[in-house]
Amino acid sequence: MIRKLSAIILCGLMLWWADSASSQTITLKAEHDMTNQSIAHQALEVMAKSVLDKTNGRLKMQLYPSLQLSGGNIPNMIRQTQMGADDLSLIPSSIYTTVQYEHGLWSLPFLFKDVEDAYLLANSDVGNRLAKIMEGKNLKTIAIWARGMRQVLNNIRTIREPKDIKGLTFRVPENPLYAETFKSLDARPVTIAWGEVHSALLLKTVDGMETPTNNIVTEKFYELLKYVTFWNYSTDMLLVSVNLDFWKKLPPDLQQALQDGAKAGGEFDFMKEKQAVEEAINLVKTKGMEVTLLSEKQHEAFANIIKPKVWPIFRDKIGSEIITESEKVLKQKK
Question: Rounded to whole angstroms, how far apart are CA atoms 262 and 145?
Fold first, then answer.
């Protein structure tokens, strides 16, 4: 009788412990490189709320904007996510090319016409394949978010045609694709870490820079630069990536909640990025920037110089097959 009673008590305790463990709150550290006013941060807030609601508070996302955990350095953030110091990060694909060059696809100049093109490809089999290969670097990429098209800004002159860029010095991210793009126009690209960009502009180390549309507003580059040309020459995506070891330890229902939350955040991000161009144009005009919008003919003038020079350099590194497949996906849209 005593043995039976002991067994019942032990069984009850085990069930209590299991229930207690499953109800404990897990706090997930999520980092990114933009301010808390950025579209990406707002999208993470949408994701965090979705995750909290779907898990009844069992999984909570704590957000760290502006590279607070990584000393202002994006490659450090990538390494920290791989090692598990960060649980999740929004990794810019343009910087991740230093780890796996296939993700240079997103930055190929003039592959995409607009953010709709980029969003379409991110949610295709091509996007799924590129997400999957990151598991080899201890990262589980649960979504790929649009980041908006990239524009060119400077303090020297209006840029309307390729000859206007010649001889100018531009800050570019740590991605050879961007450097080669500006070299193809006889400009001088300089790689500068994101955390040092404002200082470089203030010290006139560079004449200008290129950056996603929304950054012009959230980083207040209109206070530091006079001219902006909206040329939509490239983009880079945000790879919503979880440390793979952390991911494997999560029960299936929490994994699903994270994936659902990432989808909700991605939909919000896409909607806001589409709106960002017109909003940015209107705002920077009121702030005194000279805004140039390229005609289709002017746009083609840049593409006709850049693509034949830059694409052959990176076709083998990115993968000729995946570039061809991407072009097919985008052609079907048209």
Answer: 9
